[in-house]
Design a protein that fits this description.
Layout (H helix, E strand, L loop, with lengths): L6 E12 L2 E13 L4 E5 L6 H8 L7 E6 L2 E2 L5 H11 E5 L10 H9 L7 H14 L15 H14 L4 E5 L7 H16 L4 E4 L3 H4 L4 E6 L2 E7 L5 H13 L10
Parallel strand pairs: 3-8, 3-9, 6-7, 7-8
Antiparallel strand pairs: 1-2, 1-4, 4-5, 9-10
Helix pairs in contact: 3-4, 3-5, 4-5, 5-6
């Protein structure tokens, strides 16, 4: 079976087992993301946001259900096949930047491209320099991560994410370690990339960041409780719902109807 959506999840569940204890992190997730969408995944800590993003990003596998990425049945792939598809189709931006400390800015962006057999050395050089130009970091290409501010490191992470021209950018709390000024800069960069055609899926616990997307998916206790397009007339209600989720005691269910 193939999917016409860029991302399609069917009945995805994830169970973590430690000895006799089972934790149901995700339960029967059904989700489609179309090419060119900017989707935020929101909810309180522990609701399953990062687990869901890890499965979408092929960093983890579901316990049950089916996952289709860009027409590929990702559910049946082995570790090496997932790694190859991930490298080609997905760009990651992490809260903690995940830059390699002993590599320069240029080398951090270059590294994942070296695993692509379809790119020549000149292709890689052109891609790295273009990516640095997009995030306005060309002048820092020979610096090491320790010589950069948090905002600059996240810009490098974005450059690395877009370098391979992926089908989708996955951002996990991309502003979580940044001050308000740098957070705004990174959000504007993501919005710019989206306006230029990028598909973005962003996990965030921040209502303001969530509302920068075109669509938000809200999780609670591993289940989708809301999935809707964001329009001006719904923003106040969306903010209220998100704040309610973020302040709700764990294990207490409150109707949002």
């Amino acid at each position: 079976m193939s999917s016409s959506s860029l991302i399609e999840l069917q009945g995805i569940s994830k169970v973590f087992s430690i000895e006799t204890l089972e934790t149901h992190a995700l339960q029967n997730i059904n989700l489609k993301i179309e090419e060119g969408e900017f989707v935020s995944i929101a909810g309180a800590s522990g609701c399953g946001k990062s687990t869901l993003l890890s499965i979408i990003g092929l960093l983890d596998v579901a316990s049950s259900g089916y996952y289709y990425l860009a027409g590929h049945d990702a559910s049946s792939l082995d570790r090496d096949e997932r790694a190859r598809l991930r490298n080609k189709e997905i760009g990651f931006v992490f809260q903690s930047f995940n830059l390699i400390s002993d590599l320069t800015v240029y080398e951090n962006i270059e590294l994942p491209l070296t695993y692509r057999s379809d790119l020549s050395d000149q292709d890689i050089k052109d891609i790295v320099m273009n990516s640095l130009n997009v995030v306005d970091m060309v002048s820092r290409k020979d610096h090491f991560p320790s010589q950069l501010s948090g905002g600059q490191q996240q810009r490098v992470a974005v450059a690395r994410a877009i370098g391979g021209n992926p089908s989708m950018i996955l951002a996990d709390e991309p502003c979580g370690n940044l001050d308000s000024k740098n957070a705004e800069s990174v959000m504007q960069l993501l919005e710019k990339l989206h306006a230029e055609g990028a598909t973005i899926c962003m996990v965030t616990h921040d209502p303001k960041s969530a509302l920068r997307a075109d669509r938000y998916v809200e999780l609670f206790d591993g289940q989708i409780i809301s999935d809707e397009q964001i329009a001006e007339h719904t923003r106040e209600r969306v903010v209220a719902n998100l704040i309610n989720e973020l302040t709700r005691p764990i294990g207490v269910s409150v109707s949002t109807s």
